[in-house]
Design goal:
The complex is a heterodimer. Chain A is built from 25 helices and eleven strands. Chain A is mainly alpha-helical. The longest helix of chain B is centred in the middle third of the chain and has 25 residues. Classes of the chains: A mainly alpha, B alpha/beta.
Chain lengths: 569, 461
């Protein structure tokens, strides 16, 4: 999906979509409308969060919240938390449905078809089998009790943990009907422990477990013209955002006591959870998706072009970016700017040798002024956005546009993409891409992408620093349009500095975190909160942890729009 | 590691060593039984080399196949090459509101409608969702077959459509051919072991009773799924309409799987294939074995009356993860050291040889399917007589991203009412019309299919 080398210039004249027109600063939606107090010009509220008592202020608006399943990662972690006795690595080995990538945002699970029902069946049956004698149904003692009463007690309490909320009596009735059938039907006639085990498996296949549905059967909590998430919903919103798993006992107790109602209460839990090591999951999941590192493990390189590269380095590179970003975001300067400009990193021995650096005992290496700039020039990003024997300024530039400026590039129009030329070993990458600039049909978009991507030319397709390419000195200069002006740079350090100082880039980073936390794009109805969060980020010294907590206080996190056709009685 | 061979996979029965089909139509005494019509959709991505794909017509009127088509030589009298089919629903108008990257057109192939619009600011043509906006024709045909069977008081087929894929990128619209409706993808099985289990586990042959342990398991699963369906129904009641639709999809599938769990005998004349030593299909080096196993399983499912519609995606619209270590690929890759299919599409090689080599290999797999179908006797003929296969490439030119003059082969047996052994030249014929013609050929009448702008039926007689 890129414009390729052009042999002949006999192309259709009309492109259809101009590139500059498609690029909007700070994202295409929810780009801050109102200002000042009260309702903004479109009647959209300018209120960014609920009142201190948790209620939505008059005229508040919020975007929608579509029902969704647990993602693959969330399912794996939830199974581990629900069943501490599961063998290590079991959940991760399950064949669970893949999530869908979302351009400029974060992967989401899709809908369910026959195949997914079978996969969930395999997941549930496999989990009970893997637990063996430790499956919860076998741990129940019904001695001296009426069987049904005993079973109901177990089912109710397990269902509360699995559904992440107290079950409705009718839901327990359904499960008990299944239990009774399993016990008495001559085709099955299970003993009590095995029957309970099957019921546990059924709970794992039920919508209360698989979907983020913590309101259950109760009508929605109407609040002004919005729906306010109840305490159990809020517990799961917090835990799946920050820990990618089900709520812990403390969070559930807070929900039981209605202590997840006000912004302050919610923020207090968020602070606690951020301080917990489990929040590393959110930090690493955000960063690896934000930098689009998904295909890293298969980014193999050509042995002739990159003789010192080995596939094992890809694991080390991913570990570097995860460890570094964790170190920054939990450190004294946890900002976007530091993430993309810091001149140190955390590397293992393999990677240190590859980079040609000497880390201290903790793996920390200070680079000084050797052309590196935070995550931008780390091996992971350079390799995943690099080709097997050369760099890819197009893909590197596109990442900056999409993920650091929240801007769109349309795909090449059909019939404008001719056959690729073979690479010319006497020319640099930049020289070979001259045709992108010389052809008007390609230049419209490629001028934008390529000029940013050249910043990374000191880092080859396998993430190694270089000063020369095919015997010629590397030219990493380029330009980027930021905040309405064109900024020139000489290399990645210059690009990083420009992005770090840019309100547009800071705003995009805020939007990326908001999208990550909400599992959706910000909508016009979220405009007040989005603008508030951008301002807050800058005024709080760009502290990302503070931003994360402020997101949990904000209206789109605590409230949602009423859905079309929703039964509110 | 044992590779599957056709013999090892399909257990020989009787002197002919062939599978016999289950007759769903019970003939009146003395009448020749009519065999049901079947249809198979096979889609590959990333275009072809036109000069090597289209046949020429010899002096005697027979086809001279191109370099890509050579594996189909033995079947060329049963091939129809419709040249001039355009994917007009894609080429004309905007799938996303911009020009969609045609590498992401899988969702529009069997639906023949524009893709659903995504969330703004969705990157038009990006890897995001590329979801279809309507039901695909294989689903409509499969549902109609079952409706017709039930109207005659017969049991519906457990698999209205058998959806299978070989690799392709998990969880993407551009890897998905089959859709039950707007933004409702049908997951396709990609593991032959699982495919075998879901088709044949618990289905006994003839008089042998089913395994009691399996009966208990299936009954347990039915009870569990019955509960799951109840829970889904209960909780959906207050949801908004969009959410309710999502839950409805889940509920529909729970009910469908429940029906498949009924342990039915296959009939004395159908022997389920035996699976040999477990093969690991995850390395790309085993891709040929994977495709062979899937084709053989699809044939067995058709022959044993488990389905009459199969939809097979070999790869997806982008094909970044399909390499060809078993073929002689001349050039090294740009993005990966060995050339993947997307790379070959954009740089076909000297004299297009890499592209021709790989496309020829895919054609050999279509030949395998046709060989399989021709090996199953039906009456005085074979299952191939009663089957139509649509083999379609999602692009014409892989590097141009073009969708005009789609590379298509229709393989049809004697009883399908399709005139084969020829090249049929058409002019800007919307692919909607070809799909409508195939539906008619298998007994699902329609005046048109998909986008209403392109109504009509191609004449294949």
């Amino acid at each position: 999906m890129r414009c390729h080398f052009i042999k002949a210039l006999a192309l259709a004249a009309f492109l259809g979509v101009g590139c500059q027109g498609a690029i909007t600063g700070g994202g295409g939606v929810g780009n801050g409308s109102g200002s000042g107090a009260g309702n903004g010009p479109n009647g959209i509220s300018t209120v960014p969060m609920a009142n201190s008592n948790g209620k939505a202020p008059a005229g508040a608006t919020a975007g929608p919240n579509a029902i969704r399943r647990l993602s693959r990662t969330e399912l794996v972690n939830t199974l581990n938390d629900l069943f501490p006795d599961l063998p290590a690595g079991f959940s991760a080995s399950l064949n669970l449905p893949a999530d869908n990538d979302v351009a400029l945002a974060f992967a989401l699970p899709g809908t369910v078809s026959d195949l997914e029902v079978q996969r969930f069946q395999d997941m549930a049956e496999g989990t009970i089998a893997a637990l063996g004698a430790k499956q919860p149904g076998a741990q129940v003692s019904c001695a001296g009790m009426d069987e049904t009463t005993c079973a109901r007690g177990f089912v109710s309490s397990f269902a509360k943990r699995a559904f992440r909320r107290p079950p409705d009596p009718s839901e327990v009735d359904d499960l008990m009907a299944l239990f009774a059938k399993l016990r008495t039907d001559p085709g099955t006639s299970y003993g009590v422990p095995d029957a309970l085990g099957v019921v546990v498996g059924a709970i794992l296949q039920s919508p209360g477990f698989l979907y983020r549905w913590e309101r259950g059967l109760a009508p929605p909590q109407l609040d002004g013209g919005l729906v306010k998430f109840d305490n159990y919903e809020m517990a799961s919103r917090l835990s799946y955002f920050l820990w990618k798993s089900m709520p812990d006992a403390t969070l559930m107790a807070a929900a039981d006591a209605n202590h997840l109602t006000t912004p302050d209460q919610i923020a207090a839990q968020a602070q606690r959870m951020l301080a917990d090591p489990r929040a590393d999951r959110a930090l690493s999941d955000f960063v690896t998706q934000w930098l689009e590192l998904g295909p890293l493990a298969t980014s193999l390189k050509d042995a002739t072009a990159y003789p010192t590269f080995t596939p094992e380095l890809l694991d080390s590179m991913r570990a570097e970016t995860v460890a570094f970003s964790r170190d920054v975001l939990r450190g004294t300067t946890p900002s976007f700017a530091n993430l993309i400009t810091a001149k140190y990193s955390l590397v293992d021995q393999k990677l240190a040798t590859y980079y040609g650096v000497t880390p201290d005992a903790s793996g920390r290496v200070d680079f000084g002024n050797n052309g590196r700039s935070g995550v931008l020039t780390q091996g992971a990003l350079m390799a995943v956005k690099g080709n097997s024997y050369r760099t890819s300024p197009v893909r590197r530039g596109k990442l900056v546009l999409n993920r650091m400026l929240c801007s769109i590039i349309p795909p090449p129009p059909p019939n404008a993409v001719p056959d690729l030329q073979s690479p010319d070993p006497t020319k640099t990458m930049r020289q070979q891409m001259a045709d992108h600039r010389n052809n008007a049909a390609c230049a419209a978009c490629h001028d934008v992408m390529d000029n940013i991507g050249y910043a990374f030319e000191h880092f080859d397709g396998a993430g190694k620093y270089r000063t020369q390419e095919t015997g010629l000195p590397v030219d990493a200069s380029g330009t980027i349009a930021l905040d309405g002006a064109t900024v020139a740079f000489n290399d990645a350090v210059g690009l990083g500095a420009a992005l770090a100082a840019s309100p547009q880039a800071q705003g995009c980073f805020t939007e990326q975190w908001l999208r990550y936390s909400l599992g959706r794009f910000e909508q016009p109805a979220d405009a007040a909160a989005t603008e508030h969060l951008k301002t807050f980020y800058s005024q709080s010294g760009f502290s990302t942890p503070n931003l994360i907590v402020e997101i949990t206080r904000s209206l789109p996190f605590s409230h949602r729009a009423i859905a079309a056709g929703e039964g509110t009685q | 590691m044992t590779r599957f061979s056709r013999r090892s996979l399909l257990k020989a029965t009787g002197a002919s060593g062939l599978l016999l089909p289950l007759l769903n139509e019970v003939p009146a005494l003395g009448q020749t039984p009519a065999f049901p019509k079947r249809i198979v959709f096979i889609v590959v991505g990333n275009g072809t080399i036109e000069d090597a794909f289209w046949p020429t017509v010899a002096a005697d009127g027979s086809l001279t196949l191109g370099a890509i088509g050579s594996p189909l030589e033995a079947h060329k009298s049963k091939l129809l090459y419709p040249r001039g089919i355009d994917m007009r629903v894609w080429a004309e108008g905007n799938p996303f509101g911009g020009n969609g990257d045609a590498h992401h057109n899988f969702g529009a192939i069997l639906t023949a409608t524009k893709l659903a619009t995504g969330d703004p600011p969705h990157d038009p043509g990006g890897p995001g969702l590329a979801l279809a906006s309507s039901i695909s024709i294989d689903q409509v045909i499969g549902q109609k077959f079952n409706t017709d069977l039930m109207a005659k008081g017969q049991a519906p087929l457990p698999f209205p459509v058998l959806s299978v894929r070989a690799w392709g990128r998990d969880g993407t619209g551009y890897a998905t051919l089959s859709w039950t409706g707007n933004k409702a993808p049908v997951g396709a099985e990609s593991d032959p072991h699982k495919l075998f289990t879901s088709l044949f586990a618990g289905r006994s042959v003839g008089n042998a009773g089913p395994d009691p342990a399996l009966v208990k398991l299936q009954k347990t699963r039915q009870s569990v799924l019955d509960y799951v369906g109840t829970a889904l129904t209960r909780q959906t009641q207050r949801l908004g309409s969009d959410d309710r639709q999502k839950i409805q999809l889940h509920l529909d599938s729970v009910r469908a799987i429940e029906k498949q769990l009924v342990v039915t005998p296959l009939g004395s004349s159908c022997a389920p294939p035996t699976i040999g030593t477990a093969v690991d299909f995850t390395p790309i080096a085993n891709f040929p074995a994977l495709v062979d196993a899937e084709i053989d399983l699809m044939t067995a499912a058709l022959a044993c009356g488990l389905t009459r519609v199969a939809t097979y995606a070999i790869g997806d619209g982008e094909d970044y993860n399909i390499y060809f270590p078993w073929l002689n690929i001349s050039q090294k890759g740009i993005e990966f050291p060995t050339r993947h299919k997307h790379d070959i599409a954009h740089r076909p090689g000297v004299n297009n040889m890499d592209k021709i080599t790989t496309e020829n290999w895919f054609h050999s797999k279509v030949a395998r399917l046709l060989d399989n179908l021709a090996a199953v006797p039906e009456g005085t003929g074979t299952m191939l007589d009663n089957t139509v296969v649509l083999f379609l490439n999602s692009l014409n030119s892989g590097f141009g991203h073009t969708v005009l003059k789609m590379p298509i082969i229709v393989a049809a047996g004697a009883n399908m009412g399709i005139k084969t052994g020829r090249l049929l030249d058409l002019t800007a014929e919307a692919h909607n019309k070809l799909l409508a013609a195939l539906a008619n050929a298998v007994g699902v009448p329609m005046d048109g299919w998909g986008d209403a702008r392109f109504t009509g039926v191609t004449n294949l007689a």
